[in-house]
């Protein structure tokens, strides 16, 4: 586990950079000394984190008072989590000062290994919160009660080169055994899913090799006829190799193979090179990103049945352009994009999609959440000829022809009452 600091600003008359760098060597912050204090002077803190154990934080990190809304906070702590190439997770902590601490913003980064237990992760999250809150506490009367603990350093201890990686940054994950079975007097159902991820991530390259296998079987007994059964499979192989060129540009090569009888695809092999431009530097991607991606490629397809276009196989060239926006900020989160694609042999065989989701804090306590997508579909080249029965649809054996797909959801949430959220009660 390791952590680093990116200085954004400093407190007035406070050598923040020196304090934080000193803490890097001194180690974790201890709890305040046991003496009577006026805790009404403790800063108000709002923790904004989807993956944190709030009860554990409030129970263990008692340096501050916790509030339920960011508008009530003196310090807004924004935490995002990203997977690392080694299978671990990187936690990015953004400390945003408000009120008396307005403009005092900085970030900490902490990485946990893939072998870390859930308890180890939450303890490290708590420790980083304590370290990050220290500069703010030092400008309150509580600052004089703080103490630090640090590991003893051997006199001959020197920094050494990182051990050579015998796996050359490759990480493997085998998943399987996800078998779901159900049985009733008139129906039986079996589904299975398994596969392998092989990933290699460095500062320059991002590579994945992924074979996967999915199989399902459904049998339904009928009182006035023969039983109805369905066997479907979806097997394939996904891969990509992406190279970083600059803080804003990257290129990649994407390849996949799939066979699935529910979509009339006996074999499909696809190879697409692509390029991506990021409006913001990639290092800002956990908080904000606007990207534009273009891919062009070819597909070789064999069908189980003759298609509605009287084809048993196809050699297809297509391209697609996608623009994506993602913002994770104290006021909420927005994730949206637009995609367009078509085949070169016939521009009328195209697909266009607009999608998005957002959670926005309107006023204190009131949040609006919505998501949706609108898709125009004109590229279903694999649809088989002939009639599609109701049984085929219900058992998901055939794809239905469609021109438009629309999905959406919207919700409002409102909370009110006491500003404070310090008390932890885990009974029942």
Give a topology summary:
Elements: E1 2-6, H1 16-26, E2 44-48, H2 54-60, E3 65-66, E4 75-83, E5 89-97, E6 105-112, H3 118-137, E7 170-184, E8 187-201, E9 205-222, E10 225-244, E11 249-260, E12 265-278, E13 288-303, E14 313-329, E15 332-343, E16 346-363, E17 366-377, H4 390-394, E18 404-414
Parallel strand pairs: 2-3, 2-4
Antiparallel strand pairs: 1-6, 4-5, 5-6, 7-8, 8-9, 9-10, 10-11, 11-12, 12-13, 13-14, 14-15, 15-16, 16-17, 17-18
Q: In words, what does this structure look like?
A:
With 428 residues, the protein is mostly beta strands. It has 2 domains: 2-145, Rossmann fold (3-Layer(aba) Sandwich); 245-414, Porin, CATH 2.40.160. Helices cover 10% and strands 51% of the residues. The strands form 2 sheets. Strands 7-8-9-10-11-12-13-14-15-16-17-18 form a 12-stranded antiparallel beta sheet, with no helix packed on it. A 6-stranded mixed beta sheet has the order 1-6-5-4-2-3, covered by helices on one side. The radius of gyration is 27 Å and the shape is elongated. It starts with a strand and ends in a 14-residue tail after the last strand. The model is unreliable at 1-36 and 157-162 (pLDDT under 50).
